Predict the structure of 3-methyl-2-oxobutanoate hydroxymethyltransferase.
Amino acid sequence: MSANARITALTPPDILARKGGDPLVCLTAYTTPLARLVDRHCDIVLVGDSVGMVLHGLPSTLGVSLDMMIMHGQAVRRGVERALLVVDMPFGSYEETPEQAFRNAARIMAETGCAAVKLEGGETMEKTIRFLTRHGIPVMAHIGLTPQAVNSFGGYKVQGRGDEAFHILRDAEAVADAGAFSVVLEKVPATLADRITETVAIPTIGIGASRACDGQILVVDDMLGMFDAFRPKFVKRFAELGEAADAAIAAYAQEVRSRKFPSDAHVFTDGRKGKTE
Ligand code: KIV
């Protein structure tokens, strides 16, 4: 490839075509610098509404606004060249009617440059997903534990155990039938995730689901060890950057207090010896 060749980003049809193929690698990102890192390695970058808890210290995703999603979507857009960029629709921005969902999804797409939106819900969102996809808005669905419904669930509990499995399977079939190009399965039993993955014709993206899913997603701050408010079982920490940051900040504080920092290497001369830092 020539150095000037234009890099083209993956599209929703590219992701759909990966059903049953090599696993899709997906992570969240909320800022430009992290988006650049994630983009190098991932097929999908999601600006998740988890941003509310991870970066803004909110107790749940319920307080996340459309403006917050758009601002973080714009930041991430500047860091993404190769991956498919998906932005979450926040709580209250799509549930009323398909028209409300279209209006807000169109604003997200126009103002962030993302190629798809994600929304939570299965059968109840079937009509909305069909409306959006027929009007040019690719949709990633999200079923199982849908964090925006945490109050109805009574906590962040595993969904789809026992007889409940049937409802989640129906949700998966409904969103696939409505035209979603992929579906996130969050915190469901592995056997159910396997069954859904075999049944639906769209890629399943697991988070606390099964290694047989067509792809996996994690919240980037979770897997980097930078978010400590709580730690679900499905999070594997691939680094402990929170601990590394704590040690670095402690060392800085110690050096400031002992006047070790800044040393000569970090201050400027008056230039009289011809130095031009
Ligand atoms: O908001 C989010 O980050 C998500 C992923 C965890 C799937 O929905």
About this structure: The two ends are 39 Å apart (CA to CA). The chain has a mean pLDDT of 95. Residues 32 and 78 are 6 Å apart (CA to CA). Residues 28, 46, 48-50, 88, 142, 184, 207, 217, 219 surround 3-methyl-2-oxobutanoic acid (CB under 6 Å).
